[in-house]
Amino acid sequence: MGELKRKRALIREAMEYSVPEGRMEEALDLLEMYRDDRFALEVLAEFYSYLPDARNDWIREIRVVARQRGIFLLAAITGEDGYLYLISSEGIEFHGSLADGFLEEELIEFFCLETQERFRESCRTPERYPLYSGIRNDIDLCPACHATTGEEHELGCPVEVCPWCGGQLIHCNCRFDKLELDIITTDEELDRFVIILNEKGRIPYAPEQRPFFPDDGPGIVVE
Predict the structure, then answer these.
(1) Are residues 169 and 212 in the same domain?
(2) DSSP 3-state helix, strand, coil percentages of the chain (rounded to 5)?
(3) Looking at the 3D structure of the chain, how many domains does it have?
(4) What is the mean pLDDT of the chain?
(5) What is the pLDDT of residue 223?
(6) How far apart are CA 166 and CA 152, in angstroms?
(7) How many Cα atoms are found within 13 Å in the side-chain-facing hemisphere of 37?
(8) Dist. CA 71–CA 88, nearest whole Å
């Protein structure tokens, strides 16, 4: 929680130079709403630290334009405009104004947004996008790797269920049993296990898998 506290302090400091007069209370309300959400805080920090269009503004809400395999396309709706941010556990990227309605073709395909023209049209009515509720509050998101319901977990996610024994895949002994090894020490052995795992059939994320421990993010475990 120390990291989140520092992030909130940086955002609050940046707001002093960015938020228009009379809007600070509303801006702070949104910061408080997302006080423990890493993705929302990244968006707020990026916006207030590097104001788009070089003008003072404030974020009044954050909406989900699209999400896929733990990667989110979020819209920061402001008092003047709206801005797109691509964010995942790997970091954040600014992707322009909603008014421009432009997204690289590879992202259009990745998020299954049909066509550039369809996406541009949807940007004209951002209220159609659902409000971002936060990683932990959305039961359709894995709290560790952020896979959505029906998607495969990121390899190494502590929430993924073992298809052989039903336990936690990163903690059970099935990976060693299937490889006939006592320990996994090389990338080649890990790659071989992935092949065996895919042949068996990985268990996709489902809300009932949600654990009762903090979101520390994914990590591939090689023992």
Answers:
(1) yes
(2) 35, 15, 45
(3) 2
(4) 89
(5) 34
(6) 15
(7) 20
(8) 5
The per-residue pLDDT for 1 is 58
For residue 103, what pLDDT is reported?
93
Residue 25: its pLDDT value, please?
A: 95
Each residue of 47-68: pLDDT tens digit?
Answer: 999 988 777 899 999 999 998 8
Residue 48 sits at the vertex; the CA angle it makes with 44 and 54, to the nearest 5 degrees, is 135
Instruction: Identify whether residues 122 and 14 lie together within a single domain.
Output: yes
Q: Quick check: 97 and 89 in contact, CB under 8 A?
A: no
Provide the domain limits for residue 152: 143-223
What is the edge-to-edge ordering of all strands in the sheet holding 71-78? 59-68, 71-78, 82-88, 91-97
> What's the rounded Cα separation, in Å, for the pair 24 and 31?
10
Query: 189 pLDDT band (50/70/90 cuts)?
Result: very high
Query: What is the pTM for the complete model shown?
Result: 0.73
The pLDDT, as a whole number, for residue 56 is: 87
Residue 34 lies in a domain: yes
Which residue from 46, 219, 39, 42 is spatially nearest to 141, judged by alpha carbons?
A: 39
Pairing of strands 91-97, 71-78: unpaired
Same structural domain, 124 and 155: no
- Phi-psi category of residue 5: left, alpha or beta, with phi > 0 → left and psi -120 to 50 → alpha: alpha
Residue for token pair 């910061």: 31
CA separation, residue 82 to residues 10, 47, 212 (Å): 22, 11, 35
Fill in the DSSP letter of residue 127. Answer: G
